[in-house]
Write a structure and sequence with these properties.
The longest helix has 18 residues. A 5-stranded mixed beta sheet has the order 3-2-1-4-5, with helices on both faces. A two-stranded antiparallel ribbon has the order 6-7. By secondary structure, it is α/β, with parallel strands linked by helices.
């Protein structure tokens, strides 16, 4: 089945130094860009994370410090990556909760303002979990009848994610092959910051998704406990979460 695209769709996967969105860094990025006419374009590169890659991370993806020492930093290639994915929608495996938030952090660290709000996203893992409950390797075996022999290689996992989505579209007749439908179907709680610390409630108002004010509207919390804003800014939260919270605070001050 062919995807009905109105603009390019970029499947991507990251290999990283760890799973902390705020502090860990990218060591490899693989992107497969699908155009509306079916044309495909790839981008794949190792990245110098400017920090030591922990052994437990290298044991998973096989990328060691000596392999990235001579590679460009994310900041050095950030404009190239930005140019490759701009004006596209995004797809990945567990991308809504990990890859996209971490990629946003890298762009902010590189001082590139990137508007992800205009992008639709498809999380192929969510579709898989709603249908079958498995991992990417199991998904590839289940849907495509083959082993993921090079798991945890960014480009290989990117292509595997694309293959799984195409197989899902073939298998489930109730899945529509367009980005808008797949975006809505694969979305979890709609969040303002991608990491899920600030989520939208049923009436589209931003609420805290964590801590003592979980479920409370952000604007009301900032009015009643203005010190909470400063606590978040000083704490170990993603840069993009702090950016969104600052925008809400400024909006609240301007409406007084």
């Amino acid at each position: 089945m062919k995807l009905n695209l109105v603009r390019p769709l970029c499947f991507f996967d990251l290999e990283t130094t760890g799973i902390n969105i705020t502090n860990d860094r990218i060591v490899e990025i693989g992107i497969l860009k699908i155009f509306p006419d079916g044309k495909k374009k790839e981008m794949n590169t190792l990245v110098n994370p400017e920090m030591t890659i922990p052994k437990q991370a290298s044991d998973i993806h096989g990328i060691t410090n000596d392999k990235v020492d001579s590679m460009p930093t994310f900041k050095q290639i950030s404009k190239e990556i930005y140019s490759f994915i701009e004006e596209s929608d995004l797809a990945g495996f567990n991308s809504d909760r990990f890859d996209i938030p971490l990629l946003v952090e890298e762009f902010l660290r590189a001082e590139i303002e990137f508007n992800f709000k205009k992008m639709l996203t498809i999380d192929v893992q969510t579709i898989f979990h709603k249908m079958e409950q498995r991992t990417l390797s199991a998904a590839l075996k289940f849907y495509c009848k083959r082993e993921n022999e090079k798991a945890h290689s960014a480009m290989n996992d990117t292509k595997a994610t694309y293959d799984v989505l195409m197989a899902q579209l073939e298998k489930y007749s109730d899945l529509e092959p367009n980005v808008k439908f797949l975006n809505e179907f694969s979305s979890r709680n709609k969040s303002a910051d991608y990491a899920g610390f600030i989520i939208f409630n049923d009436i589209e108002r931003e609420c805290f998704g964590f801590g003592k004010y979980k479920g409370k509207e952000v604007e009301e919390v900032l009015k009643q406990d203005p010190g909470y804003f400063g606590w978040v800014l000083k704490s170990d939260f993603p840069r993009f979460t702090k950016k969104i919270l600052t925008e809400i605070r400024l909006r609240t001050l301007n409406t007084k």
